[in-house]
Amino acid sequence: MLHYALVFLVIAIIAAVFGFGGIAGTAAGIAKILFIIFLILAIISFFRGRSV
Question: Over the stretch 1-52, which tens digit does the pLDDT of each residue have?
């Protein structure tokens, strides 16, 4: 999940450098959503592992 977030972040940076604002904004939004999902899943797995 984190890998895909980083891939979309790189796509957003490259698109922004070349002037594709719409694509850059969309890719950055997807990267942000994937990173938040990654954080939620990481926190859940951390607490599930400690409660055993």
Answer: 789 999 999 999 999 999 999 999 999 999 999 999 999 999 999 998 865 5
Whether the Cβ atoms of residue 34 and residue 8 lie closer than 8 Å to each other: yes
3-state secondary structure of 19: coil
Which residue spans within the chain are E strands per DSSP?
A: none
Sign for the pseudo-dihedral over CA of 23, 24, 27, 30 = negative
**Cα–Cα distance for residue pair 3/39, rounded to 1 Å:** 13
Contacts of 9 (CB under 8 A, 6+ apart): 27, 28, 31
Q: What is the pTM of this model?
A: 0.79
